[in-house]
Specification:
Length: 125
Amino acid sequence: MNGRFESITREIIGGAIAVHRVFGPGLLEAAYEASLVHELVGRGLRVERQKAVPVLYRGVRIDCGFRMDLLIEEAVVVELKAVERLAAIHLAQMLTYLRLTDLRVGLLINFNVRVHSAGWRPQPK
């Protein structure tokens, strides 16, 4: 990963930790999302919330309701969860967004954990 992505992801992770320190587990995903957006914008990052992700099928754009939670600096996909345990489908969802957008860096963050580092899932290599 290059320095730009490292810098962006460091800010995202720091922002997520800051939000988690305030709220801990137990809120709905939407509350964490809104708070993280506020935190990241305050850190000077460009954030797009609930960004539509179109599907191209044989050259035809199909709007089928895919929306990534956050797109940061037009470069990093952030998928947020507030679930008891991350499942393979959550990782598959984020990886699908990366594939459909031709982006290479994504973070899957689960806020419904006691210790925030337990909610991180690294991207497979």
